[in-house]
Amino acid sequence: MRQLSAALIAAILLLVAGVNTSTAAGTPTLADALKQASKDGRPVLALCTRATCPLCAAFKKRLATDPALASLVPNYVVLNVNVDKDAATMGELGKLKQLDGKLPFVYVVSADGKLGAAARDANSDPNVPGMLRQGLAHTGKLLQPNERAKLEATLTKAKAAIERDDIGQAVSLLAPATKMSGQADVLVDSRKVLADLNEKAASDIAECEKALTDQDTLAAAVLIASASRRYARLPEQRKPLAEVLKKVKAAEDGRAIYNQAEEIIRARGYAQSHKSQRAAQAFQEIIKKYPDTPVARLASKELESLGAETEKKEAVTK
Q1: Start-end of CATH 3.40.30.10 domains in the chain
Q2: Distance of CA 201 to CAs 169, 188, 216, 222, 231, Å?
Q3: With contact defined as beta carbons under 8 Å apart, do 37 and 44 qualify?
Q4: Contact 222/265 with Cβ under 8 angstroms?
Q5: Under 8 Å between Cβ of 261 and 222
Q6: Cα separation of 6 and 11, whole Å?
Q7: H or E segment at 115?
Q8: Which residues contact 72 (CB under 8 A, 6 or more apart)?
Q9: Contacts of 244 (CB under 8 A, 6+ apart)
Q10: Three-state SS for 288?
Q11: Where are the beta strands (DSSP E) in 30-99?
């Protein structure tokens, strides 16, 4: 059997003996523990004990000295709960699962607040080591501080890419984080950003479908041309994008209109990149190339908006 070092035993005894998450008043709360857990994705191990309970003291010692448990405990945020003093926290845990009977009680709660397992009379329960191992198995990747810092920097870059409408870059940046199964807040946030992008893409594709239903082929073509540029790197959207594009091109003069729509999107791209003169030139070329057509009228409106926006910026800088 692997021997535990005295330093490790002392560290775990300190961890399970004190209050390591607390409010300003010093009372431990599940919310505080979950907040700490979400930083690196660790689950919470709630130990519900009584100061005068010899079985509780024995279990805490066992957590530090039994190799089957001591190797697992440091991977948890340990929440020490006094059953006689911490009624609010006992109530929070009771909502997850109400336990009664012999102390100590043990709860394993994932970083997102879901109950993994719970046990009464934990000092005598032979299933506790397996319960702790299972809690870690369901947690996914636990982040080290340097990993967390890198992922946070990547998430910041991805959000900046979205701000400048570079969705492809954002998706590429988020891809590694969104493939991780951990529950650390930076991973949860990364998955949410990607989910929001997919939701927006689905909305834009639905708007394109509506334009087709209304027989506004140019509007549909502009929408799908824009969506294809923005969301092509989203795996979930590739098939829907291809299906709508096929419908647009199948409409009367659809291929020609789609080519015109791509010219509009290209000109808009110049404007979004703050290349106002190049954008204006591109819109003027469209008007000249397709006189007295819907796309020429659209380009004229875009040119007018561009001019107004340019004048507004110039007025601000004066």
Answers
A1: 6-137
A2: 15, 20, 20, 14, 7
A3: yes
A4: yes
A5: yes
A6: 9
A7: strand 115-119
A8: 129, 132, 133, 136
A9: 205, 208, 209, 212, 220, 224, 227
A10: helix
A11: 44-49, 77-82
Amino acid at 281: Q
Alpha-carbon distance 42 to 182, whole Å?
9
Residue 7's φ and ψ, nearest 5 degrees, are -65, -40
For residue 150, what are the contacts with CB-CB under 8 A and spacing of at least 6? none
Cβ proximity of 212 and 248 under 8 Å: yes
Low-confidence ranges of the chain (pLDDT < 70): 1-28, 309-318
Token pair 């969705």: residue: 167
pTM for the full model?
A: 0.68
Structure tokens belonging to residue 152: 């946070």
Nearest alpha carbon to residue 30 among 102, 92, 114, 120:
92
Fold of 6-137: Glutaredoxin (3.40.30)
Query: Which residue in the block uniquely carries the two structure tokens 């647009």?
Result: 248
- Match 């191990």 to its residue by tokens: 45
Side chain identity, residue 300: S
